Amino acid sequence: MGFERLLADRTSAMDVNVIREILKVVSQPGMVSLAGGIPAPESFPMEIMRDLTSIVIDKYGSSAFQYDPTEGFGPLRDTLVDYLRQKGIQSKKEDILVASGSQGVLDAIGKVFISKGDQVAVEAPTYLGALQAFTPYEPEYIRLDTDDNGLIPGSLEKVLDRGGIKFIYLVPTFQNPTGRTIPLERRQEIAAIIKKHDALLIEDDPYSSLRYRGTDVPTLKSLAPGNVVYISTLSKVLAPGLRIGFCAAPEQIRKWLVIVKQGTDLHSSTFNQALAAEYISGGFLAKHLPNIINLYRPKQEAMLAALDNYFPDQFRWSRPAGGMFIWAEGPRGLDMEQLYWKAVEKKVAFVPGKYFYSSPGEGIETMRLNFTMTDEATIDRSIKTLSEVITPP
Amino acid sequence: MGFERLLADRTSAMDVNVIREILKVVSQPGMVSLAGGIPAPESFPMEIMRDLTSIVIDKYGSSAFQYDPTEGFGPLRDTLVDYLRQKGIQSKKEDILVASGSQGVLDAIGKVFISKGDQVAVEAPTYLGALQAFTPYEPEYIRLDTDDNGLIPGSLEKVLDRGGIKFIYLVPTFQNPTGRTIPLERRQEIAAIIKKHDALLIEDDPYSSLRYRGTDVPTLKSLAPGNVVYISTLSKVLAPGLRIGFCAAPEQIRKWLVIVKQGTDLHSSTFNQALAAEYISGGFLAKHLPNIINLYRPKQEAMLAALDNYFPDQFRWSRPAGGMFIWAEGPRGLDMEQLYWKAVEKKVAFVPGKYFYSSPGEGIETMRLNFTMTDEATIDRSIKTLSEVITPP
Question: If DSSP codes are grouped into helix, strand and coil, which group holds residue B261?
Answer without folding.
Answer: helix
